[in-house]
Design goal:
alpha+beta, about 35% helix
Length: about 200
């Protein structure tokens, strides 16, 4: 089978992003965005999805982290869309409840070609260190929109904001891993009665 790999880049007056992904990887990552907490979260996304990722981002961090985080989500979503192609032979659907210490978060995914985000996650603080907690949603919104996935994320409970954010990334990673796995029972079929997963 052809390797599911792709590159994407995005350059604006605010950011310069380059991303490469190998979907059938082992979770190796090489991440440098200039935003330490975000790098840590992207590393979790790669490690637990088993998608090899290289991400290079420079942005207007003297303003804040928003453009860098959002544009990285856009580029990563675009790379995933390219790598998955027709989405032929994938499992398509997956969900997981993921626990981390006191926190439990659910992610459910349909790799449908139709982008949609349902976000039921709240934080008790606007910051994790210097990182704006609202940017967690912004990243997943950009990722879902550009990867063409329907994504539902719900934090059931949790006290530590770092844990809440990290379970979001890990749960999405694990659900994504399962949804884009090749289906051995229909390896050449597009898993849709429409015959297409292009939206």
């Amino acid at each position: 089978m052809a390797p599911r790999s792709a590159d994407a880049s995005r350059k604006t007056r605010e950011t310069d992003i380059s991303v490469s992904v190998h979907v059938d990887g082992s979770g190796q990552s090489d991440i440098a965005t200039g935003v330490g907490f975000f790098d840590h979260m992207l590393d979790q996304l790669s490690r637990h999805s088993l998608i090899d990722m290289t991400v290079r981002a420079t942005g207007d961090l003297h303003i804040d982290d928003h453009h860098t985080v959002e544009d990285t989500g856009i580029a990563l979503g675009q790379a995933l869309t390219k790598a998955l192609g027709e989405r032929r032979g994938i499992m398509r659907y997956a969900s997981i409840d993921l626990a981390m210490d006191e926190t439990l978060t659910r992610a459910a995914i349909d790799v449908s070609g139709r982008p949609f985000l349902v976000w039921n996650v709240s934080f008790s603080s606007p910051k994790i260190g210097t990182f704006d907690t609202e940017l967690v949603r912004e990243f997943f919104q950009a990722l879902a929109q550009n990867a063409g996935i329907t994504l539902h994320v719900t934090n059931h409970y949790g006290a530590n904001n770092h844990h809440i954010a990290e379970t979001c990334f890990k749960a999405v990673a694990r659900a994504l891993r399962a949804a884009i796995e090749r289906d051995p029972r229909q390896p050449d079929a597009v898993p849709s009665t429409k015959g297409s997963l292009k939206g």
